[in-house]
């Protein structure tokens, strides 16, 4: 599938229109109209929440399709049927089936479809072909002009809005929220996670303009109680139609509990949010089956190695809080590699109190921050004596593990790998191979 790889990365070709994806879906017979959808936007938490929505809908007996991005290790992870990534053979065959229509779009519009647009068309076609009962669709970038927005879902979820992708979405929370609000269509039911006032005002105004029904975290739904448990947390959730107690969520962090509340509200909204709550036993079954690779994921013990794909300050703050909440590290070493277009300094400032030392390195993305540039920022934040440099991620992992091994006799040691989805995906591959 070299032709698909040649269209990567999508962000280098961002154009504020839906002309290409609309023409592609029209040529494919508008597959996105063959099923209802739950559409998710926001700065952080989209993939984890999408996985929760998927698991809940599947537990209630529906055949589900899920489209998320970016992938951790393999591109076919982005297109999921009934909880399983599309097999590589089917993924390749699907690309071959869609390619003639993609090339026709390229020719007609004189503008090559992006990597993400092609994948979006493939996902919609795969879901219609399955066929699925419902699609769970995560935006790639923003909302209004995101290729996924041709789905025009009747159930929308907007997770917390923060400053990220400012080159494309705007430099203020209001501007970014305006882009995210684009997934709110007339008559939709919208699940709104807690937002900063500047973003909330924009989102609520959009709901009013298009006549959308709003469910707000903290008012119509939310987390009632949570406590740390082995392998995750026990949570009680207030849904749109009732309360759900003693729900085990096998993910760490308060942010995942709030994601769970949004996911539950979205599923209730999808089913009509009647006066009677959903079957609590099925809800428990659905949440118990949730996984979210690369999100505070423990991939090794002795020493403990945790992977977390935080890639902006808001995400890093959630990671640091969750580390304190769910783990008892007394000596933590972080391995960090970031993309050059991120607010790396603020991310490191948030991380600094939580770790003893830092190993900076570089990931394989063409957008990766040069390791020397990362070292300079890290030394300004951490001090030279707390920063080590390795050009390669595999060497960085070895260095970090060696550093915590020196402290292992005191217990409570660990390694955190973070800074980018690309970094975590590559580390996951390396550690699993070992």
Write the layout of secondary structure elements.
Layout: H1 2-5, H2 19-27, E1 37-41, H3 46-59, E2 64-67, E3 79-81, E4 84-85, H4 88-109, H5 115-129, E5 134-138, E6 155-158, H6 166-169, H7 173-180, E7 189-192, H8 197-210, E8 213-216, E9 222-229, E10 232-238, E11 243-249, H9 254-270, H10 280-288, E12 297-300, E13 304-307, H11 313-326, E14 331-336, H12 344-351, E15 357-360, H13 371-382, E16 387-389, H14 393-405, E17 413-418, H15 421-433
Parallel strand pairs: 1-5, 1-6, 2-5, 6-7, 7-8, 13-17, 14-15, 14-17, 15-16
Antiparallel strand pairs: 2-3, 3-4, 9-10, 10-11, 12-13
Helix pairs in contact: 2-4, 2-5, 3-9, 3-10, 4-5, 7-8, 11-12, 12-13
Task: Looking at this protein, list some descriptive labels.
single chain, about 425 residues, alpha/beta, UDP-N-acetylmuramoyl-L-alanine:D-glutamate ligase, 17 strands, about 40% helix, globular
Written overview of the protein:
The chain is α/β, with parallel strands linked by helices and 434 residues long. It folds into two domains: 2-288, Mur-like, catalytic domain (UDP-N-acetylmuramoyl-L-alanine:D-glutamate ligase, 3-Layer(aba) Sandwich); 297-433, Mur ligase, C-terminal domain (Protein-Tyrosine Phosphatase, Chain A, Alpha-Beta Complex), CATH 3.90.190. Helices cover 41% and strands 18% of the residues. It has helices spanning 2-5, 19-27, 46-59, 88-109, 115-129, 166-169, 173-180, 197-210, 254-270, 280-288, 313-326, 344-351, 371-382, 393-405, 421-433, and strands at residues 37-41, 64-67, 79-81, 84-85, 134-138, 155-158, 189-192, 213-216, 222-229, 232-238, 243-249, 297-300, 304-307, 331-336, 357-360, 387-389, 413-418. The longest helix has 22 residues, at 88-109. The relative contact order is 0.11.
